[in-house]
Amino acid sequence: MFGGAFAYQAISAPERADKSERQQLATRSDSHRLGTSMEGSETVVAFVDFDCDACANAYPVVETLRKKYDGKVTFVARYFPNPSPTNGNSAAYAVESAARQGKFQDMYQKMFETQADWGDSQESKASLFRSYAEDLGLDMARYDADVVSPEVAARVKKDVDDGKKLGVTDTPSFFLNGQRIIPSSIGEFAQAIDDALEQ
User: Fold this and answer.
1) Of 67, 117, 156, 182, whose CB count within 10 A is highest?
2) Residues near 83 by Cβ (< 8 Å), separated by ≥ 6?
3) Half-sphere exposure (CA, 13 Å, Cβ side) for 43?
4) Which bin fits 84, alpha (ψ -120 to 50), beta or left (φ > 0)?
5) What's the Cα-to-Cα distance from 173 to each of 36, 136, 137, 176, 181, rounded to whole Å?
6) Residue 165: how many CA atoms within 13 Å on its side-chain side?
7) What CA–CA distance (Å, rounded) separates 66 from 171?
8) How do the domains of the chain map onto residue ranges?
9) Is 90 exceeded by the pLDDT of residue 58?
10) CATH code of the domain made up of 9-194
11) What is the 3-state secondary structure (H, E, C) of 126-145?
12) Whole-number pLDDT of residue 151
């Protein structure tokens, strides 16, 4: 994808959803939106793992598309951490804990912008993620409680479960209006969005 800029990271076998479920599963009312359409219902959903090199490589592509289609397309980010690397779940829990204080996008961006510093580490980076929360000015007592809470773990698991039902087996996985797309370049990605906008 995108001229070999990144390769997909395989995760697990899916439980497929039927067609009527796909749009609902791709975007739920509590899904985290990075930008919201002012004009229509076109929605790009990305299932991501913050400890995935391919997701980090896709991050600037998504940011470019977000700017290009600002106000025209809703962009949604959903969790799909691989349980094998040490910090996949930990990073997702940190981002979700920040989201509970209105800082989802800030922590989402921080994770990808710093991934080269901590990604693929075999040591826990929970303390590093906590420092990111401090940098964002979060209520740290609340963060400390949330990041280890069953509610945060359940919120992340809900995204993973929806992803599996949609057939997600690797990250990043992109959906446009509930349908899986696998663009090979940013131009192809933009063309798919343009086609949806013209319908």
Assistant:
1) 156
2) 89
3) 22
4) alpha
5) 19, 28, 31, 10, 8
6) 18
7) 19
8) 9-194
9) yes
10) 3.40.30.10
11) HHHHHHHHHHCCCCHHHHHH
12) 98
